[in-house]
Amino acid sequence: MKKQLALLGVATMIALSGCGKNTTNEIPTNNSQNGNSTETNHSDMNHSTTGEVPKGLKEANNPTYKVGSQAVINADHMEGMNGATATIVGAYTTTVYSVSYTPTSGGEKVTNHKWVIHEEIKDASGKAYEPGEEVVLQADHMKGMNGATATIDSAEQTTVYMADYTPSTGGEKVKNHQWVTENELSSNGTAGEGNMSGMNH
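Below the sequence we write its predicted structure tokens.
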């Protein structure tokens, strides 16, 4: 009888020890469009880029935030982004997507990545993709992204911006960050004032 009780106790301890195990590396993200979404940690994201834009991407004719103006970023794609003051270095009209994909380099699935634009999709069709459609990515914002098969989570026709900013948490300046959407920016008193497209960047 004692032996049976001892075995029962061991079995109970093993069962309890498994209950609290956390097997996911996803972190909750405050997302105004989807309050209950989760997003994989973007620590591997390329903060700065060369500033090169995909072939066929069209500059916006009359963007709300003009090149050379400043705006406040209201997005938390990466640490130190939310609340940072950005200088606009490019404004483009396109369809922007949030996507989920498994990196070609291995690892856990990335969910709700923001943002990929239409011109960063391989053999992109002439019309915008719909949520649920599968595409192949031609962007290298994160390790293992280029060449990955992705599912479209959301799609929106809008103006996207390339921007320079210094993280609100401090650290090195981020240059030519791709991408921030128009509804993720707000005026800081100077944003959108005057077209300074002749500035050297």
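Helices lie at 2-19.
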